[in-house]
Write a structure and sequence with these properties.
The chain has 276 residues and is α/β, with parallel strands linked by helices. Helices cover 39% and strands 25% of the residues. It has one domain: 3-Layer(aba) Sandwich (Rossmann fold), CATH 3.40.50. A nine-stranded mixed beta sheet has the order 2-1-3-4-9-8-7-5-6, with helices on both faces. Helix 7 crosses helix 8 and helix 8 crosses helix 9. The two termini are 23 Å apart.
Length: 276
């Protein structure tokens, strides 16, 4: 049987490592599990391309540049949320569930549109290899199952989602799975870093598709990013980040676990094996 994944490209033509990471993760998952898996890329922000829900099993929506507030009412965002609504309608009436994973910018516009929390600008940009912390729900969740209660992430955000809306979470039975690192010395709220919106829709405010290759590219070749990390954390921390990019228990582990475990929910558990 052939399985198809739609990748929504929200980078609007900006150079990035995210699309490579998403594609390679899908390809590796298909090979490792001997699944006939293919993907198609839709340039949503740049060209207004959007997939038909009936043609795909899984949808992965990328990160992207710019403010998650500026696109309100734009044509590409209208198409995006029409797609989301179609996925939700399908899942409410069909046993053939469609799955959606939201990364960073996609996560932020989703939270803003459906009022899961406050979307606002950070005091300073967060970039680098940082920590996230599981909530009680995250400790139990299958997508985060092999990560420690504190785990490493690749973060790249000028914006953030904070202040979860309890009414919305209660109504939809969504759960926060991970929070931003603890910062006891500063009076800022911790961002919501991962949410299970439903059994079929997940999102992270960090980049689970990121790997050592992509981060090394940014940290060694992007002078702006290098300067940003050094100014925020110091040169010793910058060098430590580079040194740890190949550690199997850090971002490599996060890269190996989150999106593959999400794909497993669809392709292994619902199609080939009994459910949990």
């Amino acid at each position: 049987m052939n399985y198809k994944i739609a990748i929504l490209d929200l980078y609007d033509g900006h150079v990035n490592q995210g699309m490579r990471g998403i594609k390679e993760t899908i390809e590796k998952f298909g090979l490792e599990h001997n699944i006939n898996l293919s993907y198609e890329v839709f340039d949503l922000r740049g060209k207004g391309e959007i997939p038909a829900v009936s043609n795909f099993d899984v949808f992965i929506s990328s990160g992207g540049p710019g403010s998650p507030l500026d696109s309100v009412g734009s044509e590409w965002e209208k198409k995006f949320f029409n797609l989301v609504e179609s996925i939700q309608k399908n899942n409410a009436s069909s046993s053939d569930k469609k799955y959606l994973f939201l990364i960073c910018h996609s996560f932020q516009i989703f939270c803003r549109h459906y009022n899961y929390g406050l979307v606002c600008e950070r005091k300073s940009t967060s970039f680098g290899v940082l920590h996230a912390h599981k909530t009680e729900a995250g400790i139990q969740d299958k997508v985060l199952k092999n990560l420690g209660n504190t785990f490493y992430i690749v973060d790249s955000r000028k914006w953030q989602v904070i202040q979860p809306n309890p009414t919305k979470f209660f109504e939809t039975k969504a759960e926060v799975l991970a929070l931003e690192k603890e910062r006891p010395l500063v009076p800022f709220e911790r961002a919501l870093m991962a949410i299970r919106f439903s059994e079929e829709i997940y999102g992270t405010q960090f980049h689970p598709e990121a790997d050592g290759l992509g981060m090394r590219h940014y940290l060694l070749t992007d002078e702006e990013k290098k300067k940003q990390v050094i100014e925020q954390f110091g040169e010793a921390k910058y060098l430590e980040m580079i040194d740890k990019l190949d550690d199997e228990d850090k971002i490599i582990l996060t890269h190996k676990e989150i999106i593959p475990n999400f794909l497993e929910k669809k392709y292994l558990l619902t199609n080939q094996q009994p459910t949990y």
